Amino acid sequence: MAQNRTQQPKGPRGGRNFEKPKNARKTLVRLLSYVTKRKTLLALIVLLVVISALVNVYGTYLLTPIINKIAELLDNGSTDLAPIIRMLVGLAAIYAVGAAAQYIQARLMVSLAQGTLHNLRHDLFEHLQTLPIGFYDAHTHGELMSIFTNDVDTVREAVSQGLIQIISSSIMVVGIFLMMLYISPALTCLIVLMLVIMLAIIKTIGKQSAKYFRLQQAGIGAVNGYIEELIEGLKVVKVFGREAKATAEFGERNEKYRLAATNAQTFASVLMPIMGNLSYFNFAITAAVGAFIILSLKGQTPGAGLGLFTGGLAGALTIGSLASFLQYTRQFSNPITQVSQQFNSLLAALAGAERIFAVIDAEPETDDGYVTLVNVIENADGTLTETPERTGHWAWKHPHSADGSVTYTSLKGDVRFHDVTFSYNGKKTVLNNISLYAKPGQKIAFVGSTGAGKTTITNLINRFYDVQQGKITYDGINVKKIRKDDLRRSLAMVLQDTHLFTGTVEDNIRYGKLDATHEEVVRAAKLANADSFITRLPEGYNTVLTGDGGNLSQGQRQLLAIARAAVADPPVLILDEATSSIDTRTERLIEKGMDKLMEGKTVFVIAHRLSTVRNANAIMVLENGEIIEKGDHDDLLAAGGKYYKLYTGQFELS
């Protein structure tokens, strides 16, 4: 079954290159709706952040009276340190309050961030369960896993650090700037001028750095992707003796990555030393100008001469206020740098959140069905009565809106296609005017080349997709009227690609029927001829399987999948290449068990190994979405058509 998949550029292990959000404002508002679910906690965190930031700003200003007092004592020759000690104790107390606020805020932020991510992951996973199979056909597993890992992780960083850091840094920048203006407008203008120069340098270097970091990201994606591909296909490499070619190709990718990474790290490395030296230069210039102003003001009356411009609301510039101002110059650039860094992280997080919300907003699988599957008791007169108890006898409960009546139809497994035409994308027809029927207890087989439409037929029976033309009936009821959960409960599928879950062997078999007893599980395993190898496992039915059953052979995994279908014991069974990974000897051993499994059931079989379909009641040969031949094994062989050629080719190959 060919499907069009939407591919996106990815880095290593499905990670994406950095990209900006398409609608940052909308995404931020929605992300904040998750953060603000615990409003009281968030308000307390913001309050603590404000306290911590203001304490840092105010604590620096307290250097002014302390240093001025020291200068006064030196001028007077006094040795009374009591006033200075009292000021230092007050300063220590203020910083202690700030440290306590920062510690409590950090602890509370962990709780808020993890709670936010918990809700986000829950909504994402819950919505994934509601999405149709078509969504998974259009998105690769790696792409969806990247959303759960990479994108959620970037959101975590932004919520736990970015948002609070931006708030704190913004308060610090505004507070420091106001305090510098309060101390000396002249020196503040000098700082702003130097800041403009520094920002221009950051922008110039940042452009080059961003360019090479993008190349580095692409390079590491190419290198890791190539390594992963080659490790998975190492047997093929060795079979064809392509080690030298693989090494050469890896060398090219590795060299491109080395060059990009070297340039990226070079620009990233030179930025901080340049900014650090400019910061020291700024500090020195400010100190020199400040000292010149203080010396120039000596002997002048307050408010005269230079004091009109250099003196702020705090009064004329003093040694203490200059010391505070110089400390502010050291602090001023740090919050701006942090805001810049966190802003980029926030953009990356919003891009990730946008992809998360895109999945959450994806159209869920619609279900307009109203016919349900219920337990019934068959009365002496042949009528059916619904019961909440499990009786083993099921029926379709069909309410009729016209007169308000309800009818019950026994679940038998009569499946019919009536002139069904279907297309996945609305452009290419996959099935064209298909009509067939499978009466209860019949085995219907589909054969044909890859892409002929065999699997599509089974996907339509369980309503993974809905037909565009024609209809499918189940026990005489249009499947579109049957609620999807109830429809799928009446079916069991054994797929070519088996999947086992982490858990015991018994748990994996019981997945077909969650309330199955141990005896029922064993009976199903024996039916599928899986009991013999299960009992030889270290812990038997209690052996824990991990890594999709990696400690079992492919054939053993498929036998467990057959046992899982057997324990469900539904009236309709779909086998999609169910024995493709089982050797011929094992296949013969389970034929009788499979016959028992299929006894009394409507069975649809898809098989390339034609020996498995010889005893089917009817064999449908598909080509380009149409049934070109149908009949039993003997009739089709006698016709000498497509099936005959396939079958004789199978014999020649074997």
Overview of the molecule:
The chain has four domains: 20-182 and 335-363, ABC transporter type 1, transmembrane domain (ABC transporter transmembrane region fold), CATH 1.20.1560.10; 185-311, ABC transporter type 1, transmembrane domain (ABC transporter transmembrane region fold, Up-down Bundle), CATH 1.20.1560.10; 372-410, no CATH class; 415-653, 3-Layer(aba) Sandwich (Rossmann fold), CATH 3.40.50.300. 59% of the residues lie in helices and 13% in strands. It has helices at residues 24-35, 39-61, 63-76, 82-128, 133-138, 141-183, 185-232, 234-239, 243-297, 307-310, 319-360, 454-461, 484-489, 505-510, 518-527, 531-535, 554-568, 584-598, 633-639, 642-653; strands spanning 372-378, 384-386, 394-399, 406-410, 415-423, 429-438, 443-448, 469-474, 477-478, 491-494, 503-504, 544-545, 572-576, 602-606, 618-623, 626-631. The protein has a six-stranded mixed sheet with strand order 10-13-14-7-15-16, sandwiched between helices. It has a four-stranded antiparallel sheet with strand order 2-1-3-4. Strand 1 and strand 2 form a beta hairpin. Helix 2 (39-61) packs antiparallel against helix 4 and helix 15 crosses helix 17 (554-568). Mean pLDDT is 82; it is low at 1-18, 301-309 and 650-654.
- Largest beta-sheet details: 6 strands, mixed
Poorly predicted ranges: 1-18, 301-309, 650-654
DSSP strand tally: 16
Counting DSSP H or I runs of 4 or more residues, the number of helices is: 20
Q: Rounded to an integer, what's the Rg over CA atoms?
A: 37 Å
Class derived from helix and strand content: alpha/beta
